[in-house]
Each structure stands twice: as structure tokens, then as C-alpha cells.
UniProtKB/TrEMBL annotation, chain A:
Transmembrane segments: 15-34, 253-277, 309-327, 347-371, 423-445, 645-666, 699-728, 740-762
Localization per Swiss-Prot or TrEMBL: Cell membrane
GO cellular component: plasma membrane
Domain annotation ABC3 transporter permease C-terminal: ranges: 260-372, 649-769
InterPro entries assigned: ABC3_permease_C, Membrane_comp_ABC_pdt
Organism name: Halanaerobium saccharolyticum
Membrane topology designation: Multi-pass membrane protein
Name used for this protein in its record: Putative ABC transport system permease protein
Keywords: Cell membrane, Membrane, Transmembrane, Transmembrane helix
Matches recorded under Pfam families: FtsX
Automatic annotation (TrEMBL), chain B:
UniProt name for this protein: Putative ABC transport system ATP-binding protein
Organism superkingdom: Bacteria
PROSITE patterns, sorted: ABC_TRANSPORTER_2
Entry GO terms, CC: membrane protein complex
UniProt similarity note: Belongs to the ABC transporter superfamily.
Keywords, comma-separated and alphabetical: ATP-binding, Nucleotide-binding, Transport
Gene3D superfamilies on file: P-loop containing nucleotide triphosphate hydrolases
Database matches in SMART domains: AAA (SM00382)
Domain ABC transporter: 5-244
UniProt GO MF annotations: ATP binding; ATP hydrolysis activity; transmembrane transporter activity
């Protein structure tokens, strides 16, 4: 008998039961995949670091070095296990042609040519073996293999006016330091002889001063020692923690998103399940009452129903896990390519199964909770009335006879939603979620795209921004440009700033590096979160992240080391900055050209900006000259593009989810309401009238959900963006909403999908006839 | 007499397990305004099928039904619905009230669906009908709060709310006890007296004896018709008519 009841029930609601099964299956599939990604990523990164003998601390330095001095210092330092200096030739993208006539002009990457290292920091091939390269051959970063679909045998040409060199690609470089695409430096490996030929002919040389430490836990201490050592430091310093973070970042994020989607699908599965259970209870109300009446305990009845949901949960989860097994490689493809494959650990096998099974466990626990309702069914009431007499709403206060204004069908639709709101919750929650999924990225995108976003980037608004990075003779060029601009009648005002690396005393009393932009801040001011720009020589403004890490507020004092002397400065302002890791400062100090990292000139014009940019570009070499929009586009271009894709993907996913759930819900609802529809039709209610009732139901739920979803998206979305960006350096983000997109177009799209899905799903009411009344 | 409904060579077939069943075979029938027609016959004789086919609720296989000069076979689904809503009333054996509406709401439902009527007047009419039919005290009740007979009377109110030209009833007393059944038939008698044409399917002689004409069906054919004439006095004539009817039915082999 139990089997009979189950079979009957499964067949009766086969579409939605199947949907629950699919949702559970996909959820388990993604959960297994996502967790496997995380564990594999962790293992692979560790394994790669081990094979490559990754340095724990690397100091970049442009300019010459004194090898002996570094060696002596290293030998004296007890933390150092191994030390190595490697030369890199940095070649601009415009001089490099990778299997193409087109040079890498637009690249955001710093491209360097290196030899294989001797003692550690090895550059590996795709089998995690140390690359060895013959003359005329080259090993190209995996990043380019991905972007350009390169294969061994393709060619790389490096040329400028006087020099040209051709290489054949032999292998691809798995570079533990610079693998991830978020790291904007890439290393190409060439033969020693070729390297010597290139040197002094093309590009400029930079050094990597690398250290392996005896105890990687003491990186911070070592970093301090190095920064105080007086050894070369013209360039950024990076360490092991950053390598690990960046190597894990992209795929870790993807894994997190996969797990998040899995959880979302699980929520939808639970909502569908709840809907089925509620319908089943409504339909079987009388039978449940009879069973209770003849003395079967509620817990036993519950078992009958629960067994079905356990069955669905387990088959779904096992199904998902079984699909995951062959698809496993797909999840890991990117990780395996970039970080290689570590020997399998037992956890890699067990964890995905365990996480998939948690999906089943959640479903089963959820079913048990919902089925508790069985306890409340009174046998007498159930047998006598046959229907659940309890209503969630006072029917009389919302009766047709009191409806004097609304169209009767619209009224009946609204009334049904309010009366049976518990049934509609699934639709309601899904609509809120999808509204959220659409609106949040849409608002993010609009905010980042808006020109006001510049205020979170620590720079002042201006017509043109010039950016000069360190090259030979930079200081002279900087002065030349300033003089030229001073004599240019089209220039309304200019502000020149030099950003140099200083040392600052942090909370623990240790010395830390900080980039301080120096210049006159009375013009070209940024928006301050609090306070104002530094005016006096002993004043400093800190970026949000610097201030929170140094734990300094307006009026507090910080100590900066200037020309080997500690100088106390007063914090006058805190501003938002998401560039350069968010840690920066501004002070009205004389420029320190010795330690300068980059130079900026802001210009306001009284003439055409584009024309001026062309003019300046022709005049000044090695200088990035862009307008504000261009600056935003260049700095955030990749992010905006990714966000664009994400937004489109979100809209498509939301649309599909809306379509699926709406159609499932309505098909099931129509099946349940068959008898009522048959009665309405028999007494002359037209199909159109009934359709209006159902469209009203769907739309009412949708509009209500859009309303709530939009409000939550605006509030939570802003908080979400603030949380994300506060890690990057901006703590007070104002979401800039495009009302046409967020408040008009996206609801309109949702309404269109819902109405068309509803019409499609309720078409079956045509076929309902008098015979269906007997279903009741 | 003016004709309201006519069936010409009306046939209805069903396919069950690839076998064709002729449920109605070339039925010809004509109903005039003010008639009270009962259709009798054994189970499976096709009487309910006839009712649903002449009311346009079911699609005939061949032949034609003409209602007030309009051929039903030529009407669209929408027009047929409109016809049922405005000009016909229906009462079913299983009562078939909408269970998520209260009793008053069920009664005014067809009028609100019709759409063109003043809602206050509809409500007044519903109240008047309920008073007349004796269920006014149930106006605010849910349908779970009334007996079968009361619900069937509410269903009759619903059938009458749009002041139909003809009232169709399929075994309206089938699910009721004899007291409730009598109350319901009294209502039918009154309605008919007031001018509404009534066509009723029944297997109960006491019910049929209220009608002016009785049609007897067997195996999808009409095999006889008895004209009883107008029932003037419920209390006096009913017994006599019942006697006549049973004798006739006995002759037909019922």
C-alpha cells in the first residue's frame, strides 16, 4: 500500500517531482565540483610551489645592483636559506609579436624575458619539469597559450628599429610567481646565449632579488630587515603570501561561485519540495485524516511520505555525484593547466562525496520539518470536511460580493494569492532572488562605469592625466613637460605630483613601505571621506586602507622616515583609493626624485581635450596621456568588461530560472485546480477570463517580489559592494542607479517572461472539461 | 409556442480502448419556451450526455443543436461560454460550487464574470434569490458550513443569477435526502412557473412528475415521450402524475 501511495503521488506530480530531482542533482553536482576545485587548487598550488622552489621574498629593482653586497648581507642574515639575483629584460608590448603581425601594443602586462634560474624560482613546463631551452627557442607563459590558442612551433618575434630576433615556441611556462592573469607581469624563458644577445639591444633590464627563507613564517620580519638594509629597492617587493593568494584567487573565486550557485539551486529545490509537500497535504488531507482516524500514528504516516522525499534526495544526490565523476576534469581544467596536478590525496576523493551528501541531508531534514504539519491534522475535521478548512486569511473580508471596483478576474487572482499565500511563497522567493540577481550586478556595473567612480581611485578630477613611469632620464622629461605646459595657453591649470616610496612606522612600531604622493594639493583635490588635504609640510592625508591599517584618524600623528630621519606628521584627511592595493598617502613634501616610482600631471584645459592629447602624445615619449574617461576605462576596463559579462549572464540565468519555476509552479497549480477550473468553465466562464485570473496571480506575486527584491538589492547591494571595495580601499560607496535599466527595463523583462511563461503553462486549461470535476 | 432549443440528428460517439461507442444516436428533440422537460432512462442511456450536448458544454459528433436560432456547431468556444454564462443556467448532481469562495460569492460569481451588470444590483438580486429559495441565513457562510441540500439550493441561485432563458439540471437531487430533494424540486417548479424553461435529467419518478414533458431514453435513442401537461397545484396533482408516469415507464420496460 505504501508503494502504491508513493507511485501514485510521484506520477501525479511527475513534472515538479522531476524538477526537484534535477535541482537536487545539479546542486549535488556543483557542490561536488566546487569542493573538489577548492581542495585540488590547494594541493596543486602547494605542489607547484614545491616543484618550482618558490622564493619567499622577491624585491624588484630597476637599475644596477651590487651582487657582492647582497650576497654578504644574505650570508649575515640568519633568516636567509638561499639567495639569487636574476636579470630580466623588460620589453614593451609594441616590440613583441606573438604568432601574429600585430604587436602586443594594448597589453596590460609587463613582459619580461629571462633565463632559467639556477638554484630556485624555477620556471616549469606543463609537466612541472624545469624548462631547458635551446638557442632560437622560447617558452611562453600559459596566459598567452590560453589567450592566443598557441601550440609549440608557433613563433615569437622581438624587434625594434635596429634589432630583430625570431623564436620558435618550444614549451609553455608555468610560472609559480606570475601565473595568474591578475598578476600583470609575465616571464618568457629564452636560452642564455639569446638572452645575452638581446641585452642592451632591446628593452631595459630589471633585477629580481629573490630569497628563500629558513622559516617562511618569518616573512614579515625579513621584509623589515630587507627594507632597512639599504639594499636595492627600486621597485615593488612581493612575498610568498601574495603568490599563494593570487594563485588561488581566480580559481578560488570560481569555486566559490560554483558552490554559491549550488546552494542557490538547493534553495530552489527546497522551495519546490515545500510546494509539493503542501499540495500533497492539501490533496491527501482527507486520506491523512482517515489514516489518523483508524489509529495510524502521525509519525507512521509521516514515514510514508518522508520515504518518498528521502528517495528523491538520495537518488538526486547520487545522480549528481555520478555525473560529477566524468565531468570532474572539466572543473579542474583551468587549475590543472595553470598550476598542474598534484598527486591525488584521499581528501580529493572523499570531500566531494561528503559535500554532495550534505545536499541530501539538508533536503531530508527540511522534509522532516515540513512534514511535522501532519501532527496538526484533525481526523474529524478532515473526514467530515474533506478539505483543509483553515484559511490563512479571513475570507469574508475579501469577498467577491464586496468588490465594487476591480475586474472580477483580477480580483479573484489577487484573492487567491492572499488566501493561499503559503503556496505562492516558492514563486515569491524565486522572484525576489532573481530580481536581486539582476539588479545587483546592474547597479555595480553602472556605478563602476560612471565617471564619478574616479573619486574612489584617489585621484582628482581633471581633463587630462599624464602618467610617467620610471625610465632613464625621467626627471628631466618631467621638468620639460611642466615647462611646456606652463607656456601652453590652452592649459588652464596644471598640477604636478611625484609618488615616491617612503617608510612609515606602523602600529607595531615596525617600518613599512608606503607610497606617498607629493605636491601641492591646493589644486586638483580629491574627495575626502573625512578631513581635508594636507597644506603644511607636517601634514599628511591617508588612504582609507592605510588609515585603518595604521589605526590612525584625523588629528593623529604618524612617523615617516624622510632622509633617514623620523618626522612626525599630522593626519588631516582620509580619502578613498582602490588603486595600488589601496595603501597610499598624500603629503605636501618636496619631491623625492631618488625614490620616485611614478609621476603624474593633472591638466585642465580650455580647448578640445582629444586634440590636446594627440598634440602631447606627439611631443612626449614614454608618457601615458589620457582623459579621465580613458583613465577609468584603462584602469577598470577589464573589470567593467567582466562585470558586463557577469551582468548578462546573471540576466540570462535569472530569466531561465524565472521561466522554469513559473512554468513548473503554474503547471502544478493548474493540475491541482483542475476541478475548480472545470466548474468555472461549465457555468460559462471563458478560457480568457480564467487566464486573466492566473496571469494576475503570477504578476501580483512578481510585482510584489520585484518591489521587495529591488529594495533589498539597493540596500544589500550597496553594502555588498562596500564590503568588496573596502578590501580594495573604498569604504563609502554610493551606488549609482540607472533608473531606466534598474527600475524600468529589468522589471519589464521579468514581467514579459512571466506573462509569456504563464500563458504557455496554462494553455492546458483549454483541455479541462466537465469530466475533470470528478477529480475533486 | 415559441421554440427555444432544438436538436437535429444529434449524435455523440466516444472512443474507448479504440472501440467506438454511440452514446447518442440521431436524437431529434424540440423544446419550447416555458417547457419543463425531464429526461429519464436507465444508467448509460445517454441522458446526461444529451444534456451536455444540447447545452454546448460537450461537442457533438454530428447533427446540430439550435439554441434561439443559433447553430451551436458554428459558435466559437468563446461565444459558447458566453451563451452558457448569460442565457443558460446549470445545476449539477455533485453541486460543484467553487470551494474557495463563500456561498454568496459563489452565487454572484457568474454575474461578475458576465461583467456588464451593476454590482450593487447583482448583490441585491442574489440576496432576493437566496431569500426566495430559503438560504438567506447562509449568505456569509463558507461552503463547508452548509448541508448538501442547502448547497444545492445555493447552486440553483447561482444558476439563476444571470436570469437565464433555460435551466439545465443533471440529477439535481441525486445526492440529496428526500426532504432536501423535495425542497429543491419545489424551487424548480416555482422557477418554471415564472417562465424559465427547465430541462432536467433524472431517474427519479417523483422528480420527473413535476415536468410538463417526460422523454425516455435507452441506448442513446429517445424511445418515448409522455406529455403530462402543466403542473398547477403541487399538493394535489403530484401523486396522480407519479402514478401515470410509472405506468408509462413500466410499459416502456423501465
Amino acid at each position: 500500500m505504501i508503494l502504491k501511495i508513493l507511485k501514485h503521488d510521484l506520477l501525479k506530480k511527475k513534472i515538479i517531482t522531476f524538477a526537484v530531482f534535477i535541482f537536487i542533482m545539479l546542486s549535488a553536482f556543483l557542490m561536488a565540483g566546487g569542493s573538489n576545485m577548492l581542495i585540488t587548487l590547494n594541493d596543486s598550488v602547494d605542489y607547484l610551489f614545491e616543484k618550482a622552489l618558490l622564493p619567499h621574498f622577491v624585491q624588484y629593482h630597476s637599475g644596477s645592483i651590487d651582487q657582492v653586497m647582497i650576497q654578504n648581507w644574505s650570508q649575515r642574515n640568519e633568516n636567509v636559506k638561499r639567495q639569487q639575483n636574476s636579470e630580466m629584460i623588460n620589453i614593451p608590448g609594441s616590440k613583441i609579436f606573438i604568432n601574429s603581425q600585430q604587436a602586443e601594443v594594448d597589453t596590460v602586462m609587463d613582459l619580461s624575458f629571462v633565463r632559467q634560474n639556477e638554484s630556485f624560482d624555477f620556471l616549469l613546463n606543463l609537466n612541472n619539469q624545469i624548462i631547458s631551452i635551446d638557442q632560437g627557442e622560447i617558452a611562453v607563459p600559459i596566459y598567452y597559450r590560453q589567450r592566443r590558442n598557441l601550440v609549440p612551433g608557433d613563433n615569437v618575434v622581438i624587434k625594434n628599429e635596429q634589432f630583430e630576433m625570431n623564436f620558435i615556441i618550444k614549451e609553455f611556462v608555468r610560472d609559480a610567481q606570475m601565473n595568474p592573469s591578475v598578476i600583470s607581469s609575465k616571464r618568457f624563458v629564452v636560452n642564455n646565449t639569446d638572452f645575452e644577445k638581446m641585452k642592451n639591444q632591446i628593452g631595459k633590464t630589471e633585477y629580481l632579488i629573490s630569497f628563500q627563507l629558513n622559516d617562511p613564517a618569518r616573512i614579515s620580519e625579513f621584509t623589515n630587515q630587507y627594507s632597512q638594509s639599504g639594499l636595492p629597492q627600486k621597485g615593488p617587493a612581493v612575498d610568498y603570501k601574495i603568490f599563494k593568494l593570487f594563485n588561488s584567487l581566480t580559481d578560488g573565486l570560481i569555486a566559490a561561485v560554483v558552490i554559491l550557485i549550488s546552494l542557490l539551486l538547493n534553495i530552489i529545490a527546497l522551495l519546490c519540495l515545500r510546494f509539493i509537500i503542501l499540495l500533497t497535504i492539501e490533496e491527501d488531507y482527507k486520506e491523512i485524516g482517515v489514516m489518523k482516524g483508524i489509529g495510524i500514528a502521525a509519525s507512521d504516516i509521516r514515514k510514508i511520505y518522508l520515504s518518498k522525499y528521502i528517495f528523491i534526495a538520495l537518488t538526486g544526490t547520487i545522480g549528481g555525484f555520478l555525473i560529477y565523476l566524468p565531468a570532474r576534469k572539466l572543473f579542474l581544467k583551468n587549475i590543472i593547466l595553470f598550476t598542474g596536478e598534484a598527486p591525488k590525496s584521499i581528501l580529493q576523493l572523499i570531500l566531494p562525496l561528503l559535500t554532495a551528501l550534505t545536499i541530501a541531508a539538508v533536503v531530508i531534514v527540511f522534509s522532516i520539518i515540513i512534514l511535522r504539519r501532519f501532527n496538526k491534522i484533525s481526523p474529524v475535521e478532515a473526514i467530515r470536511l474533506g478539505i483543509n478548512a483553515k484559511s490563512y486569511f479571513n475570507k469574508n473580508s475579501f469577498s467577491l460580493s464586496k468588490n465594487n471596483f476591480l475586474n472580477a478576474n483580477v480580483f479573484l487572482g489577487l484573492r487567491d494569492v492572499l488566501m493561499r499565500f503559503k503556496l505562492f511563497i516558492i514563486l515569491f522567493v524565486v522572484f525576489i532572488l532573481t530580481t536581486f540577481i539582476i539588479i545587483v550586478p546592474l547597479n555595480f556595473l553602472n556605478t563602476i562605469k560612471s565617471s564619478e567612480f574616479v573619486r574612489y581611485m584617489g585621484i582628482a578630477e581633471s581633463d587630462i592625466i599624464m602618467d610617467l613611469r620610471y625610465t632613464e632620464g625621467i626627471q628631466d622629461r618631467f621638468e620639460q613637460i611642466k615647462t611646456y605646459l606652463a607656456n601652453d595657453p590652452d592649459v588652464l591649470e596644471q598640477g604636478a605630483f611625484v609618488t615616491s616610496r617612503y617608510r612609515i612606522i606602523n602600529q607595531e612600531g615596525l617600518v613599512e613601505n608606503i607610497y606617498i604622493q607629493t605636491g601641492d594639493f591646493s589644486k586638483f583635490n580629491v574627495d575626502y571621506l573625512a578631513g581635508q588635504s594636507p597644506a603644511q609640510a607636517n601634514e599628511i592625508a591617508l588612504s582609507y586602507l592605510s588609515s585603518s591599517e595604521l589605526n590612525k584618524n584625523i588629528g593623529d600623528k604618524v612617523q615617516i622616515i624622510i632622509e633617514e630621519e623620523r618626522r612626525e606628521m599630522i593626519v588631516t584627511g582620509i580619502y578613498q583609493d582602490i588603486t595600488n592595493g589601496g595603501r597610499s598617502a598624500k603629503a605636501n613634501l618636496p619631491a623625492d626624485y631618488q625614490n620616485a616610482s611614478w609621476y603624474n600631471i593633472y591638466i585642465n584645459l580650455n580647448s578640445d581635450i582629444a586634440e590636446k592629447i594627440n598634440e602631447y602624445e606627439a611631443l612626449f615619449d614614454n608618457t601615458k596621456i589620457i582623459d579621465q574617461e580613458g583613465y577609468l576605462a584603462q584602469t577598470l576596463g577589464d573589470t567593467i568588461e567582466q562585470l558586463n559579462i557577469l551582468t548578462i549572464a546573471a540576466i540570462i540565468i535569472a530569466g531561465v530560472v524565472i521561466f522554469l519555476i513559473t512554468s513548473l509552479f503554474l503547471k502544478t497549480l493548474i493540475a491541482r485546480d483542475k476541478a475548480q477550473i472545470a466548474i468555472m468553465k461549465s457555468i460559462g466562464t471563458s478560457i480568457e477570463a480564467i487566464k486573466i485570473q492566473y496571469i494576475t496571480k503570477a504578476l501580483f506575486v512578481l510585482i510584489f517580489a520585484i518591489f521587495i527584491g529591488t529594495i533589498t538589492a539597493n540596500i544589500l547591494g550597496e553594502q555588498l559592494l562596500t564590503i568588496i571595495l573596502s578590501f580594495l580601499g573604498a569604504s563609502r560607496i554610493e551606488i549609482i542607479i540607472n533608473p531606466i535599466r534598474s527600475y524600468l527595463l529589468s522589471p519589464l523583462i521579468m514581467i514579459l517572461i512571466v506573462v509569456s511563461t504563464t500563458l504557455l503553462s496554462i494553455n492546458s486549461i483549454k483541455k479541462i472539461s466537465l469530466a475533470d470535476i470528478k477529480v475533486e | 409556442m415559441r421554440e427555444i432549443l432544438k436538436a437535429e440528428n444529434l449524435s455523440k460517439d466516444y472512443l474507448i480502448n479504440k472501440k467506438k461507442f454511440n452514446v447518442l444516436r440521431n436524437i431529434n428533440i424540440s423544446i419550447n419556451v416555458g417547457d419543463f422537460v425531464s429526461v429519464m432512462g436507465p444508467s448509460g442511456s445517454g441522458k446526461s450526455t444529451l444534456l451536455y450536448n444540447v447545452s454546448g458544454m460537450d461537442k457533438m459528433s454530428s447533427g446540430e443543436v439550435v439554441f434561439q436560432g443559433e447553430k451551436l456547431s458554428e459558435l466559437s468556444e468563446k461565444k459558447l461560454s458566453g451563451l452558457r454564462l448569460k442565457k443558460m443556467g446549470f445545476v449539477f448532481q455533485q453541486i460543484n460550487l467553487l470551494n474557495n469562495l463563500g456561498i454568496l460569492d459563489n452565487i454572484i460569481f457568474p454575474a461578475q464574470m458576465e461583467g456588464s451588470q451593476d454590482r450593487k444590483k447583482v448583490k441585491q438580486r442574489a440576496v432576493a434569490l437566496m431569500k426566495k429559495i430559503g438560504i438567506i441565513e447562509l449568505a456569509e457562510n463558507e461552503i463547508t458550513q452548509a448541508s448538501g441540500g442547502q448547497l444545492q439550493r445555493a447552486a440553483i441561485c447561482r444558476a439563476l443569477i444571470n436570469e437565464p432563458e433555460i435551466l439545465f439540471a443533471d440529477e439535481p437531487t441525486g445526492a440529496l435526502n428526500s426532504k432536501s430533494a423535495k425542497e429543491v424540486m419545489d424551487v424548480f417548479h416555482t422557477i418554471n412557473k415564472e417562465g424559465t424553461t427547465v430541462m432536467i435529467v433524472t431517474h427519479d419518478i417523483r422528480v420527473a412528475s413535476h415536468s410538463s414533458r417526460v422523454i425516455f431514453m435507452k441506448d442513446g435513442n429517445i424511445i418515448g415521450e409522455k406529455v403530462l401537461g402543466e403542473l398547477k397545484d403541487l399538493d394535489i396533482e403530484l401523486k396522480d402524475r407519479e402514478g401515470k408516469l410509472s405506468k408509462w415507464l413500466l410499459d416502456l420496460g423501465f
